[in-house]
Amino acid sequence: MAKWKLSLWNKYLLSYLLVLLLPVLLMGQIVYVHFIGILKEQSTEANRTILSKISEQMDNNLNEFLSIAALISRSSQLMEADPRTTAELGKLLGQLDYSAANEYIDELIVYRKNSELLLSNKSTYLPVIFNNEVFQIDGWNADEVAEKLQALRGPVIKTAIQKTRQAVDPKAIVYMVPIPLNAEQPQGVVMFVMQEYKLKRLITPASPMSSRSSFILDSSGAILTQSQPQLYSKPTYLEKVTKLPGEGGATVMNGSDTYHVSSLRSNKSGLTFVTVISDEELMRSAVQFRNRALVALGCIAFAGAILIYAVMRLNYNPIKRLIRLTEARWGNKLGQAIGLEKLHAAMDKAEEAYKAWEAQSQTAIGARQQQQLAELLRGGFDSIDLFNRSGAEIGLVLTRNTYQVVLIEQVRRGNLIEQLSSLNPSDYLPEALESFHIQLTTGERAIWIVSYEPDDPMTAERWRTMHRQLVEETGEQLTIGIGGACTTLDGLGKSYIEAVSALQYSAVLGKNNVILFQNTPVEQPGDNGWDPSEQFARIRELLTRGYTDEAARLTEELVQLIAARSSTLYLATYWCYELIHTVTKVVSSLPNVQAQSPSIPYVALLTQLESFEDLMIMVQKVCAEAYSQLATLEDRTGEDVKHELYNRILAYLNEHAFNHQFTVSMLAEDLSSSEASLRRAFKEASGTTIFQYVNELRMNKAKSLLATTDMSVHDIVEVVGYSDDSSFIRKFRQENGLTPGDYRKNQCANPSRIQ
């Protein structure tokens, strides 16, 4: 199963979206955290303000209680009276009714020292009955009420439970003040009874937070009252709250729940006021803010994504066109690559192809140079211009017009030829000279070709200097044979024969030496009065005019004459080379003849032979093969030749027709023929011209691309090989009666018509 792969375009799109979203999310997170901090600070400050108001109001109430207690302590009638009748008692109790002065006073009770009764604005009580049946004060027993009251030395606040009647809230708060105030031996105690529900109203301010709860703690940390006990009633939680410092803010954990607590202690009353709110309640507005922010960020991200997509789409169009061109040119060679990866794959393929071509070129250039130099030695170039045109591409050019062949031979046979082959002749010759090394598998000789200007020839001293440098470089004894100078390229074969002859005289003239052919006693061609130049010219004429049999007969006669009239092996070799060169050169120049020459030039093969008989056999064999090739050519009909040429033209056009630089001259150059002959052969075989056929190939491919792809017309023009859009559209309309766009619409509407 093919692995899903994300296209490079989508990768870039996602990366740009991340670049957009990461700062937005980071900024949102920073704002959110900052908002939470502000919210907590504001909540703490609001709680502090609320607690301050509660504390102030509570302190005012208690101050009023102290004032009332002071008034009572100064009233001798209340403190010393001993009512005997009901009327006296009623009048006395009426003086204790302060409920109108302070709404929080539900009942005011006065305890007088050494008195058996507790006086109240509502009734009188015995201490024992008071604690058992009226108000049960928290932590007090009935039989110790009087004792507890007598022991008070300062104001005390206690919780109590009402026993006598059904009230709105049976729980009460009792504020007990010894009188006289600040006396070392108080004479009594004034008790202010407050209903708890009234204090709850005091500590329950209007708030949108339903889970906010407030507490009042006494000086020992015990809870006097709380506004919402049903919300915060867990013992562990209450224990943590009551143990908080007297003032400030804190966070309390109770299991998985988190609570934010603010507290304020009153320096006047010693009471501590506490507010508690759950983290969930506090964060409710923050969550709402976060949700709104997420929606806003989502809208920003969505708008940014659309903008990024649009900009990428706009900027990606040229790349998309390039990808389509790559697909059209490379096809399945790109493997599983998608999107921009196709461009990378195409560039990788191109780089691989270039490196392979470069490596092959380096090897091929060296091989082609050696082939051209071997052809030069073979006599295959009539002029220096022809040689330079053929060798310019591979860096092989001659600029001098006098040439000599130099052969270097090791005195003691060894493997020095490989070392000599690696040497650069230019390193051992004057700068004004040109030199090339020819690598032939002919034995143990290095072959150099040296060229120079006639006014700056190679003297004997220069040759000896070169010899000394080579001997020093190689550390071996070397014999150098130098052929005669020639001013035409086809004379190099003769110079080669002369260089070989010079080496053959090393036994006479000395080894480890430079031997010039001109210094040898060799008999020169023509010295004996016989010169077959006229016969060579006659053979050349007969072959050119097509008289092959007559030329073959004359060649056979000339071979016999060379064997009879040559007094030395050198002369025989010289004339045999001339004969072979004459025949093979004429045959290879004839049309429709593919010359088949050996990898080693004939002149090198001839100089390896050591007898007249071997020379004659080789000459006869080479000439017989050449004449046989001519006979085969004559047997072929003209129609066969034309058909073969047509097939070659057709194959070339099918491969190169989509190159916008294609011309008939390119075709003629690559097929080694004239433009006129190619035009004529193609017209006769196909009934159409070359350019009509090329245009047909291009149009067919254009129609196929229009029908099967969504490539633009401009891209198709580049793929099929037209030079510009307007000429393509004009030709397309002329041939199809429709513009390319209309043709595509027509094909899309009728898929069955797609060609």
Short description:
With 755 residues, this protein is an alpha+beta fold.
List the helices and strands and how they pair.
Elements: H1 8-74, H2 76-80, H3 86-94, E1 107-112, E2 118-120, E3 124-125, H4 127-134, E4 135-137, H5 145-151, E5 156-162, E6 171-179, E7 188-195, H6 196-203, E8 213-217, E9 223-226, H7 235-242, E10 248-254, E11 257-265, E12 272-278, H8 279-282, H9 284-330, H10 340-378, H11 384-391, E13 402-410, H12 416-422, E14 434-438, E15 445-452, H13 460-474, E16 478-482, H14 492-504, H15 506-509, E17 514-516, H16 533-545, H17 548-565, H18 569-589, H19 602-608, H20 612-635, H21 638-656, H22 664-671, H23 675-686, H24 690-708, H25 713-720, H26 725-736, H27 740-749
Parallel strand pairs: 16-17
Antiparallel strand pairs: 1-2, 1-7, 2-3, 4-5, 5-6, 6-7, 8-9, 8-12, 10-11, 11-12, 13-15, 13-16, 14-15
